[in-house]
């Protein structure tokens, strides 16, 4: 059996690619797999048609749309096609004809898939609020944590902890409130991702001790987790929240949002905050830095929680799904 993983163009973003190339590490031990990248990064009608016709020629025994390009379901043999849905948050920002067209391409198209996989309960509910899917047509399979992230215990720096923040420019990553919450707390804020002008100015105003890096390799990102004391992820919205389980896998305490899906993914192994409340974020950091017993309890719960996101566990779930399709 041959499986083709269809990825959006690399210029659109690497997050989905990173997740499913990890999935493929496990799946290719069981099945023959290929990875196909769409040729056009744009999302206008000519680009969608070009990508669709390209994908049609690349079909194998099972086609797996890894995310984003749900419109490929109008071009592929849907009886042998799986699509993974990460989120449809962009839909909520649209209006008028653009919103109607986006729904046809990215939401209504899901009814054509043989199997729809959601990465979280939150992503599933988003879609089911918009369309009806047969109960046997969909399931939840979470993202796996890469085997590159392994437990690396580190003595906590309670004098000046290093706080790792992934995502510089994206407003939903909530860097601005983090900067404000950390004002007058002794720490070093390590920011991965390009900074916006607004956040650069805020860092100066709050006199934050920080450093910034971007365009890192996967190996360098793993090192950032290992070198930090705390992982900061009080995001305003996500389809899943990879930094939560990556931090847990390395053995770092994680700060994340007390909203779905982050609080679900964390599984009791993170300090939960109200992401729009600067005081809530500040209080969390003060508790973490001053309370060693609390800190260690959360870390151990995180190590326990991340077991269910191990690659072997997720690979087995996908292997079962693929076998079901072939047997039909």
TrEMBL record:
InterPro entries reported in the protein's UniProt record: Glyco_trans_1, Glyco_trans_4-like_N
Annotated Gene3D superfamilies: Glycogen Phosphorylase B
Record keywords: Transferase
Database matches in Pfam families: Glyco_transf_4, Glycos_transf_1
Annotated Glycosyltransferase subfamily 4-like N-terminal domain residues: 37-148
Residue ranges occupied by any Glycosyl transferase family domain in the UniProt entry: 153-304
Keyword Transferase: yes
GO molecular function (one): glycosyltransferase activity
Highest taxon of the lineage: Bacteria
Entry protein name: Glycosyl transferase group 1
């Amino acid at each position: 059996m041959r499986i083709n993983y269809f990825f959006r163009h690399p210029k659109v973003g690497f997050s989905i690619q990173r997740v499913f190339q990890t999935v493929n590490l496990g799946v290719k031990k069981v099945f023959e797999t290929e990875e196909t990248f769409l040729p056009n990064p744009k999302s206008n009608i000519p680009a969608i048609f070009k990508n669709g016709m390209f994908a049609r020629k690349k079909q194998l025994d099972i086609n797996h749309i890894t995310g984003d390009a749900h419109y490929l379901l109008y071009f592929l043999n849907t009886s042998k096609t799986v699509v993974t849905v990460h989120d449809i948050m962009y839909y909520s920002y649209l209006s008028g004809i653009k919103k109607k067209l986006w729904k046809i391409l990215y939401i209504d198209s899901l009814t054509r898939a043989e199997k729809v996989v959601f990465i979280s309960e939150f992503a599933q509910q988003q879609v089911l609020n918009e369309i009806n899917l047969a109960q046997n047509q969909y399931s939840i399979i979470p993202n796996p944590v890469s085997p590159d992230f392994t437990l690396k215990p580190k003595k906590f720096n309670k004098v000046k902890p290093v706080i790792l923040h992934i995502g510089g420019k994206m407003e939903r990553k909530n860097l601005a409130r983090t900067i404000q919450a950390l004002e007058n707390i002794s720490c070093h804020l390590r920011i991965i991702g390009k900074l916006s002008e607004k956040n650069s100015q805020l860092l100066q105003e709050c006199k934050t001790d920080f450093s910034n890096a971007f365009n890192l390799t996967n190996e360098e990102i793993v090192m950032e987790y290992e070198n930090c004391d705390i992982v900061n992820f009080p995001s305003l919205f996500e389809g899943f929240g990879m930094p939560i389980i990556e931090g847990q896998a390395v053995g770092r305490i994680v700060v994340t949002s007390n909203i779905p899906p982050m609080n679900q993914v964390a599984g009791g192994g993170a300090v939960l905050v109200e992401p729009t409340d600067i005081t809530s974020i500040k209080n969390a950091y003060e508790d973490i830095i001053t309370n060693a017993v609390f800190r260690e309890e959360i870390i151990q719960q995180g190590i326990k929680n991340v077991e269910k996101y191990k690659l072997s566990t997720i690979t087995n779930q996908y292997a079962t799904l693929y076998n079901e399709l072939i047997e039909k």
